[in-house]
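One-letter codes give the sequence; the fold follows as tokens. Both lines appear below.
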Amino acid sequence: MSIHLQFQSKQHEASFSLGAKKTQRGASGAAICGARTRNGAACQNIPIKEGSNRCLSHAGPKAANAFRERKKRAFEGGRISAAEWNRAEARRAANRLGDQWKTNPWLPGSTIDLGEQERNFRDAVSGLALDALPPAVVDWLRWRYRRTQIDRPNSASWYKALTQDLQRRIELAGPRPTGTDYSEHKFASAPRTWAVSETGTTSSSRRELPDTPRAPKIVRGKGYTRPGRPRTQPADENEFDDLMRVYRQNTAVLEQIMSAARGEAKQLAVLRTLRDYLARPADVEACKRWLELVEAVQVR
């Protein structure tokens, strides 16, 4: 179905096009999270209100708790369905269990339900006593089975998981803690949030997609892009000329401070602090940093 739009003027058409672009996720001016992902790209998820322009995955625990409280009020007020609320709560419980597994991999529970594929999984690991393994390791093994045998079959990766990775994870988990009763633990039988469909695959699973290599780690200098902290990396030719101009114009003030600053890096930090203060004299933070620097020199 196509819709023919009639514009009253060229300006009307231009305004409509601009507004349409802003509603497209990732377009210029659109609201996206923008956090750097593992493959080096910007996160395209929509930010949450509580997350300072970050999505739920990148906003941090405080914002996530506030987001949950807002969703809870919406559920109690009938603005979201019970099914949507239950899915979100199940996922939060699974994330909480995964976080607890980092310190105690023997806590009972699971975060994936293989459904009809559970029998095939049991056959594939028939030589293993799953009940004797840490639940965190068993859960990881189920995920590997789904990834390498259901979503995107890869016999070599599954064989490596069984013969190499599994033993390493068991050793890292350590022996079962003695004298601990997990029967009353709230994750003893739940949650199971990710389920495999009856046909064997789910179209929404990202595990069907090829692996994306991680982007190389960004190496930045000390204090890089951190507001209010003088950078200590060497100055290029243009910045050096600018700092020398600041020094010549304020020689009387800087003479004692520069003599007390040992090393080129500290002297550059002094000049950059003064330059920032002179450029923004009304900036409280810039003024505070300069006064702290002067006071530190006077104490010496």
Notes: Strands lie at 112-113, 194-195. The chain has three domains: 30-80, 91-176+184-208, 237-299.
